[in-house]
Design a protein that fits this description.
The structure is a single chain. By secondary structure, the protein is mostly helical. It contains five helices and no strands. It has a domain at 25-79. Helix content is 59%, strand content 0%. It starts with a helix and ends with a helix.
């Protein structure tokens, strides 16, 4: 960060203040709910882990969505 008079003035007025970290908004990250399930050809319900792992190794949108689904599973486990 460049040192300027404005930055120095802000630091003098409020010493020790740090910026807040942004929280991740998962609802906004999920653009097309159900797209992974539809592309895998699975009926409504949970996706089997074996199919999810296989899809995560693929390229393109299918692989991206599968890897994201695996990440969301980890987040769900942390809350419980």
């Amino acid at each position: 960060m460049a040192i300027s008079r404005a930055n120095i003035a802000m630091e003098i007025k409020r010493p020790g203040r740090k910026k807040k970290k942004k929280k991740l908004n998962i609802k906004k990250a999920i653009k097309k709910p159900g797209a992974l399930r539809k592309s895998l050809g699975i009926k409504k319900g949970k996706i089997p882990l074996s199919k999810l792992n296989a899809a995560a190794k693929k390229k393109g949108k299918l692989g991206q969505r599968a890897r994201f689904a695996k990440t969301l599973r980890k987040l769900n486990r942390r809350k419980a």
